[in-house]
Amino acid sequence: MNDQCKKMSKIFFLFFCIFLIHTVNTESHQYVDIEDYPYHVSIQIFGRHICSGAFIHESWIMTAASCVFSAELSRVSVRVRSSYICAICGDSLEISNIVIHEDFNKCVYFNDIALIKLKNPAEFGEKLLPIGLPEKENEIEDGTRCVVTGWKPELKPARIQRLAAAAVAIINQRTCKERMPSYKPLSKEMLCAVNTTHPSERCQGDLGAPLVSEQTLIGILSYGLGCETGTHPGVYTRISSYLSWIFVNSGIY
Fold first, then answer.
1. Nearest 5°: CA angle at 43, between 38 and 47?
2. Is residue 162 in some structural domain?
3. Rounded to whole angstroms, how far apart are CA atoms 141 and 200?
4. Which of 66, 85, 171, 222 has the most CB within a 10 Å radius?
5. 159 Cβ partners below 8 Å, 6+ apart?
């Protein structure tokens, strides 16, 4: 990693820590059940949650490249069919391949997208279903209502992580840049969203968290906090910009 990238990464880490400090609020979030968001999965290394992903096909999961670009294949698994993250919650699925976008830039998070292939096709049911992909690349209007899901620790009876959701709205890149510290550039392949309904609500968003509008996966969390921190936006990889890449690498269209 060159010096400029190291410097930017340090600045990003500093602001990210500041974001985390402002997420201490433990009462204003919405816990949900996996049946309501059956596409949401936990990506794990040695059985420990590291980020989120979304089922898009019986054999494929989409997540952020920044989540898995340095992971060893044999150590990664996917936990599904549960509203909670624990060793006995839901089912753990083995994987056979990880496809990182060839132009992923870990310094500025451009092309932050990856595909994970399961060792065996998953059996779908009410707790595990794929989310649809956009039909074509199109503009997503400012103010478009979406939902983002992520994991939030419960305080009682123990700090077990539970699936949570927040309603967010798309904002244009100009507004996004005004609301974000100027430590990362934005590309046209990125989306920004904020929690405008309840700006004080915060929940633990994580890398790869799916951003969904009208039962269509329009983004995956690249950086920021998925359930948003007040007026600070989350930045997402725009799925519609990668439909050809997804097809070439998975056959899904």
1. 115
2. yes
3. 24
4. 222
5. 153
